[in-house]
From TrEMBL:
Cofactor: Mg(2+); Mn(2+)
Keyword hit for Kinase: no
Organism: Amphibalanus amphitrite
Record Pfam families: Mab-21_C
Organism domain of life: Eukaryota
Protein name, UniProt field: Mab-21-like HhH/H2TH-like domain-containing protein
Domain Mab-21-like HhH/H2TH-like, first and last residues per copy: 282-358
Sequence similarity: Belongs to the mab-21 family.
Alphabetized UniProt keyword annotations: GTP-binding, Magnesium, Manganese, Metal-binding, Nucleotide-binding, Nucleotidyltransferase, Transferase
Length: 464
């Protein structure tokens, strides 16, 4: 369909003049698959609480802190023991928390839930930090920098009875297996792997696939550059910058290659959520471009571009794609929260070349891609009919995507097998504002729950 749209546009005498890109962007942004939920905060708070309750129950507790099985490295020294290790907090991260997850058009694939288990019982200290006594029972760990900025090693503090000269490592590989020692989290089945995370889907409690990852909190944020950075667009606001700088970063295990067995990486997932929520509506329209690299580019541009430039959503999307293509070509895209870190570290030359070419190609095909996406949702139109409908001066009323979806759209078919599935669908698929008797709203949200939708519409589902 994308190629059909390209051919149609190429056959016009002056495609740019005939088809204002913003008209197509406005239509695409109404689709249920990419619409941003402006009332996201209450839903996330509820889902955060639900995920934490479920995780704690599966770990054998009711509320944090929930003890984990003590780490006893085989043949290890007494300094390597972590007797007080526990889950202090369970929270969502990634696209689910950001409200940037996507329902694919085929309705079969959903974004996974990224769940972070913040650990207590390990006191992590950065070199040069003032000595502060650890909490009773906690094990002191010291950060040692590596050659790659943002990647570190964790060393156990030596005890008087230690016989070894050098500090022993708390390996990221050991941390990755902490949750795997609790079979209930994985329904008694062998957990999968997704980089450093363990994957599970424990129905009916966790109906979507979940990536589970442990993390360790730092006492501080090890970057002074962010607070002192010059911001031409006066974004983020000074108050938010101060709050971000006062929020400790996290350490998460790195991937599963032999070279990364012991390494940990700085994570700014708490900070990312805060700045994403501070974006303006127009800036968040560009947030529909996915992938961590595109989001990083968006945050850098939000600091640099004048606020008025974001009114051109199509041009803003092109600016984000162009920045990613240029960064991949230069083999460097700085982490937004720590400019010394390169988020492209670890990618091969072939992967970076492909990233640069893909971003440039998408920028060149953005109009036709948006047309293909919109037409594939609105089965009532072919790509050509959709583009004709958007031509100025419009011979027909402006395209109302919501109404077209209500009259006949391709809605994802979901077969829930438990009440929890329905609740999570409502949260994740942004249907928390659906009201009984509102079929247009229900269809526009992209939900079609067989056997339940009709009962909802006649008001018979209040108790359920």
């Amino acid at each position: 369909m994308c190629e059909t749209a390209r051919a149609w546009l190429a056959g016009r005498p002056d495609p740019a003049a005939l088809l204002p890109p913003d008209a197509l962007v406005a239509a695409a942004l109404q689709l249920p698959y990419i619409t941003v939920n402006r009332g996201h905060e209450p839903a996330i708070a509820t889902l955060d609480d639900t995920v934490e309750r479920v995780a704690c129950l599966l770990l054998g507790g009711r509320r944090p802190p929930v003890p984990l099985r003590p780490v006893e490295p085989p043949g290890g020294c007494v300094c390597q023991r972590l007797p007080a290790l526990a889950v202090r907090r369970v929270l969502l991260s990634g696209s689910s928390r950001e409200c940037s997850q996507v329902l694919l058009i085929d309705g079969e694939t959903k974004s996974d839930l990224d769940v972070m288990f913040e650990l207590a019982g390990a006191d992590v200290c950065w070199p040069g930090e003032a000595e502060v006594p650890p909490e009773p029972g906690s094990t002191r760990l010291w950060v040692r920098r590596t050659e790659q900025e943002g990647f570190v090693l964790l060393e156990f503090e030596q005890h008087a009875e230690c016989r070894h000269r050098e500090r022993r490592l708390f390996s990221a590989a050991v941390a990755r297996d902490l949750l795997r020692a609790h079979p209930a989290l994985f329904g008694g089945r062998e957990p999968g792997r997704a980089g450093p995370a363990s994957t599970t889907a424990v129905r009916p409690y966790l109906p979507y696939p979940c990536d589970l990852l442990v993390c360790l909190p730092l006492r501080r944020w090890p970057s002074e550059e962010y607070g002192a950075r010059r911001r031409p667009a006066d974004w983020p606001p000074p108050g938010l910058v101060r709050a971000l700088c006062a929020t400790p970063a996290l350490l998460v295990p790195v991937g599963c290659t032999p070279q990364e067995e012991h390494q940990w990486r700085l994570s700014f997932s708490r900070h990312e959520y805060a700045v994403y929520r501070a974006l303006t509506d127009r800036q968040r329209d560009c947030f529909e471009l996915k992938s961590y690299y595109l989001k990083t580019a968006l945050l850098w541009l939000a600091e640099r571009r004048p606020p008025g430039d974001w009114e051109d959503v199509y041009g803003s999307m092109l600016a984000v794609l162009t920045l990613v293509a240029e960064a991949a070509g230069q083999r460097r895209l700085s982490c937004y929260f720590n400019a010394e870190m390169n988020v492209l570290t670890g990618r091969t030359e072939a992967e970076l070349t492909e990233l640069a070419e893909s971003a440039a190609s998408l920028a060149g095909r953005l109009t036709s891609c948006l047309a293909a996406l919109t037409a594939s949702c609105l089965q009532r139109f072919t790509v050509e009919q959709l583009l004709e409908r958007l031509l100025p001066p419009a011979p027909a009323p402006p395209l109302d995507v919501s109404r077209e979806l209500a009259e006949g759209c391709r809605a994802p078919m979901v077969e829930p097998d438990h009440g929890a599935d329905i609740l999570l669908l409502c949260w994740l698929d942004r249907a928390e504002n659906v009201e009984p008797g509102d079929p247009i709203n229900f269809r526009r949200r992209g939900l079609c729950l067989p056997g339940l939708r009709d009962r909802w519409l006649v008001g018979e589902m209040e108790e359920e």
